[in-house]
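worker-03 picked up job from queue 'complexes'. Input manifest follows; two sequence lines, order preserved.
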Amino acid sequence: MSKHITLTDAPTGSRCMICGIEETLSVKQRLAELGFTNGALVDKLYTGSKGSPIAFRVSGAVIAVRSDDAKKIIAEI
Amino acid sequence: MAEVSKEFTIALAGNPNVGKSTVFNNFTGLHQHTGNWPGKTVESSQGEYIYNNSKYIIQDLPGTYSLTPNSAEEQVTSDYIKSGEYDALVIVLDATCMERNIRFALSIISYVKSKVILCINLIDEAEKKGINIDDKKMSEMLGVPVIKTAARSGKGTENLKKEIEIISNSSQDTEKTELSRKDLTELSDKILDACCTYKSDNTDRRDRQIDKILLSKRFGIPVMLMMLACVFWITIAGANLPSELLNKGFRLLGEKLRIGLSIIHCPDLVISAMIDGVYTALTWIVSVMLPPMAIFFPLFTLMEDSGYLPRIAFNLDTIFRKANAHGKQSLTIAMGFGCNACGVTGCRIIDSPRERLIAIITNSLVPCNGRFPMLIAIISMYFVGASLGAAETLVQSLILLLLIMLSVVVTLICSKILSKTVLKGMESSFILELPPYRRPQIGKVIIRSIFDRTIFVLLRAISAAAPAGLLIWILANIKIGDSTILLQITQMLDPIGRALGLDGAILCAFILGFPANEIVLPIILMIYMSGSTLTEIPDLVQFKEILTANGWTITTAICMLIFALFHFPCSTTCITIWKETHSKKWTLVSILVPLIAGVILCLAVNTVTNIL
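worker-03 finished. Artifact:
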């Protein structure tokens, strides 16, 4: 049974499938346009110092978001 | 010239970073101009080209990720696309990033299918990464023409022009089919599966290897600082000779003009006003400003085109966040190094109005190309030994880098203060795309950049420097009582100047240098020599002697450096700030913030050194 984990806590270098996005995420729509939707596969690529920002490979591109926002996206590894 | 029979309008849309501007530039060459969309501070580029006796006007739309109007750019793009006021709509896609690009294209096709042409760009990059795209199949499945291009080298552009001609001339119906997000995703997945093949799972291996270093916690920031130091060093070292040559050339030309004017019996006073006043100021600014700009801007554009800049924003976001500022402000600051006015315009990349204002207001806290020579001269005279030879410019650049780091720190402090006082508000989100690394078209970038910069500097010289030169000439040549107005103003300002560790001449020079910082040092020299014209800086040894003779100490030099970094923005920047903010209040704040910062720091340094 695969674990459910926030994108912030996922280990760098892992591949996850998004299974939930919190409604309170203010940039939910913008992120969805960029490919962060339920069922999407994302790879966690790089983390900045102090854990933020975090760069993901999604929909064929590399997008960086802050860890506060990534914390509101749940995925399974 | 051949008669043009028909005129068509073509719209150009696409995600950011797909090479849309390369397509635009390829088609229009120099037949383009940039402005703003009416009523908005969103850039609008328009250009034109001729093909088979017809004129095609291209409207370049801002790069956007979707048509949902979340920002001014998206609003403009969405409105324009839905208006249908064009004969063909070319959607530029990035062949190396098809998943998201296809979804975007599909969302547009659902509105205006019969006018759409898909242009799959960066085909050369895709081939290198083992990505293969079946354009014929895609065209079948979508029902719109699909053209593959590598706009950088012009591959496929003829086909695109031909297709544009066909679509523009065909009759068009406006069938609309709205697709839900789920439909879009399903349809785009189907198309991707059928038409795109990937040789391996890791098509972006090289980019990831580079990013591993550039984004690493250990090497990221040091590499960035090194690159910056290199850029500054090349700018400074490279500008020396051209500046000298321009200077000598202008001087010779000036003498010829002087002789010419006297031959046509122009009154001496007018000759002096024209040559000693207007001409000298104008040519001084061109010879000081043009060479560094012609070097810095191409370098910066190369960094931008290569895809490196967003990595800087990534590395610095945490620091900027601590200052309650947006990570992209690091990029607007970098733009400000070239020209503060350009940095202010560049603040459009920050979506949130509050954070954009903070970036605009603090932009002048970093020195621009125009101030570098002033800073370098002081650094050379007071802080760098004369006998370093070839290493001299290197040491100068490093000290300049230190000064710039100081100004970045001050920028962060001011940003934080602003965000806690007059610009309180919600922190906005930070979403940044890290595009693939691409080899920039070095030749084209350099030529275009030098061309743009030359025009910019010349326009500025004429509009700002020429009147300034005239004013200074008047002040320096008209006597009230027993001394010129200029010297009297200097005397009046002296007490304030002394309190700041400077003197009246320096303050007067900065005030008169409002149109252009490049003339501050010449004005100081002119005042000290009680002269009536701007003279060029003698060699630095002599200059230092003149400064020392007028009371300069090491404290003066330090305060001069501080004030040069933090005073008020130049007139061009002030006008740009006003145009971007449409607010007298914020323009005033932008003038006061650096000034107050400079005054406080100068007072502090002066008081401390007086105590010691």
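worker-03 released lock.
Chain B has a mean pLDDT of 87.
Chain B touches chain A through 34 residues (CB under 8 Å).
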